[in-house]
Amino acid sequence: MTAATTRRTTARHRGTGTADFATTDTPIGPFTALTDATGYVLAAGWTTDAENLRTLIHPALRPTELRHRDSLGPVTQAVIDYHRGDLTAIDTVPVRQHSGEFLLHAWEVLRQIPAGSPITYTEFAAGAGRPDATRAAANACARNAAALFVPCHRVFRIGGALGGFRWGLPIKRWLLDHEA
C-alpha cells in the first residue's frame, strides 16, 4: 500500500503530546478528525466531541492535549471531497493506529475494500486471513478509531443486515448509499 497504510508503532509510553483536531460540516452531521504531529489520522467520526475521539485512541498513541484548528489541510479536504462524491479522496489519507498483528492487518484489509463493494463480516474475516474468526473481524470494526479513513462501514452481516456502527446505523446506511 501507499502512505495511506495503517502504521504499526513501537511506542512504549503513554501520551504523545498534542494532537490537532478540526470539525467539518457534512451532509450527515459534523465530522471531526484528530491528527498527530505528522498529519496521520489517529481518530475520526461524526461528532463534535474531540475528547470522546481522543479516548478511542490506543494509550500508546493517545495525545495528552488537543488543539483546535479550523482545518487539517489535506485531511479536511479529503472529508469534504468524499462527501461531495469523490469516493477515493479518503484512500490516500495516512492513518496511525496501534494494536496487535491481527487488528493492524484487519484494518489494512478494510482500507482495501473499494467504495461501492461492501462485504460481509465472514468475507472480511476470510480476507484478513482468519476465515473462522467472524467475531474477531467484527471486533476489528468495533475497535477502529479512524472511521471513514478505515472504512468499517463497508462491512455488513450475512443477509444484508447492517450490523453495528459506532456513529449510528443511519450514518452507516447513508455512507453505503452514497457509495453505491
From TrEMBL:
<protein>
    <submittedName>
        <fullName>Methylated-DNA--[protein]-cysteine S-methyltransferase</fullName>
        <ecNumber>2.1.1.63</ecNumber>
    </submittedName>
</protein>
<feature type="region of interest" description="Disordered">
    <location>
        <begin position="1"/>
        <end position="23"/>
    </location>
</feature>
<keyword id="KW-0489">Methyltransferase</keyword>
<dbReference type="InterPro" id="IPR036388">
    <property type="entry name" value="WH-like_DNA-bd_sf"/>
</dbReference>
<dbReference type="InterPro" id="IPR001497">
    <property type="entry name" value="MethylDNA_cys_MeTrfase_AS"/>
</dbReference>
<dbReference type="GO" id="GO:0003908">
    <property type="term" value="F:methylated-DNA-[protein]-cysteine S-methyltransferase activity"/>
</dbReference>
<keyword id="KW-0808">Transferase</keyword>
<feature type="domain" description="Methylated-DNA-[protein]-cysteine S-methyltransferase DNA binding">
    <location>
        <begin position="102"/>
        <end position="179"/>
    </location>
</feature>
<dbReference type="GO" id="GO:0006281">
    <property type="term" value="P:DNA repair"/>
</dbReference>
<dbReference type="GO" id="GO:0032259">
    <property type="term" value="P:methylation"/>
</dbReference>
<dbReference type="InterPro" id="IPR014048">
    <property type="entry name" value="MethylDNA_cys_MeTrfase_DNA-bd"/>
</dbReference>
<keyword id="KW-0227">DNA damage</keyword>
<dbReference type="InterPro" id="IPR036217">
    <property type="entry name" value="MethylDNA_cys_MeTrfase_DNAb"/>
</dbReference>
<dbReference type="Pfam" id="PF01035">
    <property type="entry name" value="DNA_binding_1"/>
</dbReference>
<keyword id="KW-0234">DNA repair</keyword>
